[in-house]
């Protein structure tokens, strides 16, 4: 689902991926997508799977580095989908800010996924604002495995 977006982004000038525009996600395309990947790391890796996640130190510098980070996300999700922790019911998690938050296994998978689609919309809008219309095959919905056409 994100591969089509990353392929489109690889056609853009690298400097454009770092261009900051306040009000769009985390400011730039690379910053926003780094944030998305690390959202999976925080919620799905650290909270659901109880595995440490190597958070980015700032923004991933290139699209290739970002692809590598998302490969780690995909491997994490494959493990998480097989985890018995998905069936652990609800429990209280204390956030880094010290807030108590009631969470569940399904929420710890679904929250980062919906978060990714929210930010994908921002990335697409930012690309348009920066003068690069997104091709229609950059679908903002979650397509079925065989695609929408069949």
Automatic annotation (TrEMBL):
UniProt: a divalent metal cation binding residues: 35, 115, 119
Keyword Cytoplasm: no
Keyword vocabulary terms for this entry: Metal-binding
Keyword Metal-binding: yes
Gene Ontology molecular function terms on file: metal ion binding
Annotated family: Belongs to the DinB family.
This protein's name: DinB family protein
Organism, as annotated: Deinococcus sonorensis KR-87
Lineage, uppermost ranks: Bacteria, Thermotogati, Deinococcota, Deinococci, Deinococcales
